[in-house]
Amino acid sequence: MDINFATLSNHLTLIGIYCILALSLNLINGSLGTFSLGHHGFWAMGAYASGVVVWTLGSPHGSLWVFGLSFIAAMVAAGLFGLLVGAPCLRLRGDYLAIATLGFAEIMVICVRNSESWHIFGERGLGGAAGFSISETFRDTAYHISGDKLSGNDVMMAVSGGDNTTRQVIYLVLTWMLVALVFIIIRNLLRSGHGRAIMAIRDDQTAAELMGVNLIRYKVSIFVIGAVLAGLAGALFTNYRSTISPGNFPMMEGVRILLMCVLGGLGSMSGTLIAVFVLYSSEQILALFQTPIPFYIWNNNAAEFQASTKTLKDLWQVVFALLLVLLMLMRPNGLMGRRELSRQYFRDLFQAWRTTPFLPVATLIQFILLIAGLVLSGKPIVTIEGWPFLTVLIWDWPLILAFGIIIALQLAKRRILLRQAGVSA
Amino acid sequence: MSEPLLSAQNLTKKFGGLTAVNDFSVELFEGEIVGLIGPNGAGKTTVFNLLTGVYSPDAGSIRLCGQSTARKSPDRVTASGLARTFQNIRLFKEMTVLENVKVGFESHRTSSLLKAVLRHPEFRAEEKRLHERALELLSIFGIENKAEDISSSLPYGQQRKLEIARALAAQPRVLLLDEPAAGMNDSESENLRELLHKIRERFSLTILLIEHDMPFVMGLVKRLLVLDHGTTIARGSPAEVRANPTVIEAYLGKEDEPAA
Q1: How far apart are CA A44 and CA A237, in angstroms?
Q2: What is the mean pLDDT of residues B56-66?
Q3: Domain check: are A181 and A43 in the same one?
């Protein structure tokens, strides 16, 4: 396995797309306090709407105009879908709303799965034959790479290859500019009278209504805004990937986006961004583990127990789930709770560090252990100007040991902080 | 006297077989303070919920400032000039004291969502104005120095005051107070009474209040209504009501019953 700039920028672009999705879901689930579980539906809606526009109007010789139009179409389609789902469903409370939104998202994906028109080829996906290009300038590159009759995977391989760095850079920059834009929009929205009304609904719906807050209007409009932003992420996803299929939008994607919000802290925007990075990269890192699991499995044919040939890599989802359980036990409100990485936050952090020197020392040791574990565990697979950058883990135990000590230190820190707050741990 | 500011005629509300409020009528004239008393479960809070639009009445009509509000949703009732506080404090717990008050401005905000997102000068000017007005309201209640605190961290008495400040932010003409002095000691409730007089003068308010603390009510209101089992059993001046045998019976039981 070789990792180069293209792969890294591919990951960063996808992280950016997840950031937009998680931020927009956090607006609905964290700030408004309604529990939506169907965000992948709006994502898929946006992705397919933009795909249909590009394929109808300009494939494979796209132009900047079709490109722009595909984004607008995606946002409008997702917004309308959000209105359709939100208007009836937002009258429901709690679990019922979650189930209803999940249901609508699944309906959306199933419709696409069974559709054979508008360039949507059911399970086979949309845009499987060629890539979209974002302007005349890059059209030829994209066409050259995708050629004709390539499968989605081939296109992805081509996209990850070295000869279209320009396209990668453009998407990387565009994605992160859009992340910044979405972040600013949501932040401005939350720091206004509208934002206060939304958070009032979250804290006490009845009291908010009695203070003059129009519940339905706010709930539906915020839900639609969330859907529109998810549609934006969808358009970005389609145009970037060049090919999408219903398999890109399973229910697990909805759960993953929700997980990013919960893990970061419902209502915390900076927490959400951190959680997207943490979740995405820990999934990638866990998939590199190579140590065989010392399990014996009953082999029916040989009628005896045999040593398992599975490695941690094969079980990364189990490990991942365990890590999540641990994290939620230690930080039930997510990484950031409702706080933001504001000046006040750093001031408080610095204050705590000054009064209790153990905390910064422990944090430093944890950081060193993580790096040392990663370095000791593997052999470098990427070198950027001589620096080992990413490694395949051939020898997991130093990293596992490091993780153990990190978790122990984290628990110790938590005990101290709790004792300071006057709560017995 | 002119037309009443708030008038409710023959309100009735039933929950299943239980008649919570039966044939309730009240008229509030500009500048009045009227008390609503009655034993626990008499239907006082239900009356408030009917007046504010939380429940819609099964029968009867409500007119506020000349408009019928019986079928309006609570936010629209608030926008037409009615605000209330709650028996069990319902502040926005995770928001700051200042933000709580600012939520009260909701029906008087004019700048749109788009202007807020774009930080339009109009939006900034409005935010600044609201900020100053919110601080001014807090200073009336002497809690302006806690403006940036999380509202649930305030002591109990100040939370009650904050609720009133938040209600005032909605610029009501009629203020409904649900047991504002509950849980306060004598000096605190004395202080609150002075405050209520002060805000009534300053904002030319008409107040309807529920209260259990009899000395508190007697010193504040000119007119009382007594509810029991959803029915109005007496109305009149505090002295009249205190002397009314039906009221005494409702509160203490019949005289000929043996004391428990």
Answers
A1: 9
A2: 87
A3: yes
pLDDT in tens, A129-143: 334 433 333 344 444
A201-215, A252-266, A328-342, A373-387: the lowest-pLDDT one: A373-387
Q: Are A255 and A101 in contact (CB under 8 A)?
A: no
Does the distance separating the beta carbons of A211 and B170 come in below 8 Å? yes
Task: Enter the ipTM.
Answer: 0.88
Both structure tokens of A28: 């609905």
Task: Please give the pLDDT value at position B38.
Answer: 84
**CA distances from residue A388 to A1, A283, A368, A394 in whole angstroms, order as listed:** 15, 20, 16, 15
Residue A132: the pLDDT is: 40
Residue ending a domain, among B101, B136, B170, is B170
Element (H, E) at A71: helix A64-89
Supply φ then ψ for residue A35, to 5 degrees: -100, 100
Look at residue B240 and tell me if it is in a domain. yes
Instruction: From chain B, pick out residues whose CB is under 8 angstroms from the CB of A221.
Output: 113
Q: Are A14 and A236 in contact (CB under 8 A)?
A: no
SS3 B210: strand
Q: Distance (Å, rounded) from C-alpha A177 to C-alpha B139? A: 43
Q: How far is the alpha carbon of B84 from chain A, nearest alpha carbon, in Å?
A: 8
Best CA proximity match to B100, nearest among B63, B51, B135: B135
Cis peptide preceding A246, ω within 30 of 0: no
Whole-angstrom distance, CA of residue A100 vs CA of residue A147:
42
Q: How many CB atoms lie within 10 A of CB A380?
A: 13
Structural domains counted in chain B: 2
| Residue matched to tokens 């028996």 | B87
Q: What is the dihedral of CA B202, B206, B209, B213, to 10 degrees?
A: 50
- Cβ distance A197 to B73 less than 8 Å, yes or no, reads no
Q: Which of A106-115, A151-160, A162-171, B142-151 has the lowest mean pLDDT?
A: A151-160
Contact B33, B207 (CB under 8 A): yes
Q: How far is CA B232 from CA A277, B209, B229, B256, in A?
A: 63, 15, 8, 23
Q: Where is pLDDT greater, at B27 or A294? A: B27
> Residue A151 above 50 pLDDT?
no
- Inside any domain, residue A154: yes
Give the integer Cα–Cα distance in Å for B188 and B156: 11
Preferred mutation among B76, B80, B103, B171 to probe A, highest tally of A CBs within 10 A? B103
CA atoms of A190 and A33, how far apart (whole Å): 13
Same domain, B63 and B190: yes
Residues B258 and B179 in one domain: yes
**Domain finish residue from A227, A249, A271:** A249
Mark whether A341 and A203 lie in a shared domain: no
Contact predicate A73/A226, CB 8 Å: no
Give the number of other CB atoms < 10 A from CB of residue A348: 12
CB A89 within 8 Å of CB A26: no
In angstroms, the separation between the Cα of residue B46 and the nearest Cα of chain A is 14
Phi-psi region of A122 (alpha: psi -120 to 50; beta: other; left: phi over 0): left
Instruction: Say how far apart CA B202 and CA B215 lie, in whole Å.
Output: 24
B4 lies in some domain:
yes
Q: What is chain B's Cα-based Rg?
A: 19
A188/B118 Cβ within 8 A: yes
Q: Does one domain contain both A174 and A74?
A: yes
Burial A123-149 (b: 16+ CB within 10 A, else e): eebbbbbbbbbbeeebbebbbebbeee
- Full domain range(s) for residue B186: 1-81+172-260
